[in-house]
Write a sequence for this structure.
């Protein structure tokens, strides 16, 4: 498979809460390792990428250097609007137009306007010639897009806004953004999912939305926080046998002693411990089995799926991102 990192733009989306930002940051880290000048773009006012690199949230709309070859930015629609209008009409006319009440009303009320501003900024970051003449271009832009439904709305915005504007520089800009999104040699689409029925269903719906809106397919799916299938059938049988021994005579005798005012003996406590361990083992195994069933559901539909294992960590940090980047490097 041709590397997704060879594109100018990689859009990362999926159901909310599946770890899109973490995967986008890990992809940015991987790309920077390979010598690509990369920026990870966040939408909204979260600024979580900088926190993963212990740099804080940063200022909205400002490109922040995370490490060698890797930067991040949080899109500020109002700032993008001013930069874009200045580019279209010159610095002074741009300020006048952007501060006009009529234009501000149009920008706020026009369907898809705010989303288009975000996509215009993403497009601008992919260009060798930037709006700010001294700013360098990027080899790869990783868009940490909103959750599936909002992401599809954002990707649809150039078509929506272009239909309103029809002619002129705004229509021309919308067309350029749409051409980038539709061109498989310049843009790629990656979904992030958990191993749950709802998240996988949303991934399938995302694929259908990309086809209908842009004529595109998902290039890959990252199944995040994937648990291993820990036990063979024979091992599960041995666990059940241990559990049965722990819940038999010793447990009944211990219960009788408690009713008589005494304490369970060591054998009963040991049996309770075996019972709790067996329950935990079966629960983790069952959860892993269900996750792998959902993974196979995607593969039966011919998705290219990359599994990222569950990380037993209290919090996200740079070492965690490095581990995920190592995993992704096998497929990307």
């Amino acid at each position: 498979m041709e590397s997704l990192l060879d594109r100018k733009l990689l859009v990362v989306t999926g159901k909310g809460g599946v770890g899109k930002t973490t995967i986008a940051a890990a992809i940015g880290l991987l790309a920077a390792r390979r010598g690509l000048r990369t920026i990870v773009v966040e939408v909204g006012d979260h600024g979580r990428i900088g926190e993963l690199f212990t740099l804080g949230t940063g200022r909205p709309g400002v490109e922040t250097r995370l490490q060698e070859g890797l930067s991040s930015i949080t899109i500020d629609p109002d700032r993008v609007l001013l930069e874009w209008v200045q580019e279209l009409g010159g610095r002074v006319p741009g300020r006048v137009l952007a501060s006009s009440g009529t234009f501000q009303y149009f920008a706020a009320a026009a369907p898809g306007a705010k989303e288009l501003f975000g996509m215009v900024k993403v497009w601008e970051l992919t260009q060798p010639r930037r709006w700010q003449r001294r700013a360098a271009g990027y080899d790869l832009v990783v868009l940490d897009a909103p959750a599936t439904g909002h992401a599809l709305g954002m990707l649809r915005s150039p078509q929506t806004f272009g239909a309103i504007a029809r002619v002129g520089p705004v229509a021309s800009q919308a067309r350029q953004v749409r051409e980038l999104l539709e061109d498989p040699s310049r843009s790629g689409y990656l979904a992030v999912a958990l191993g749950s029925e709802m998240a996988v269903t949303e991934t399938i719906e995302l694929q259908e939305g990309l086809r209908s809106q842009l004529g595109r397919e998902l290039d890959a799916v990252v199944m995040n926080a994937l648990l291993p299938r820990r036990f063979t059938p024979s091992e599960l049988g041995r666990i059940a046998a241990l559990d049965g021994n722990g819940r038999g005579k010793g447990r009944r005798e211990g219960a009788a002693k408690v009713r008589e005012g005494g304490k369970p003996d060591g054998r009963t406590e040991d049996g309770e411990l075996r019972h709790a361990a067996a329950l935990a083992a079966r629960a983790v195994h069952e959860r892993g089995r269900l996750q792998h069933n959902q993974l196979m559901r995607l593969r039966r539909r011919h998705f290219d799926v990359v599994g990222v294992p569950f990380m037993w960590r209290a919090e996200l940090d740079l070492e965690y991102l490095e581990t995920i980047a190592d995993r992704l490097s096998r497929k990307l």
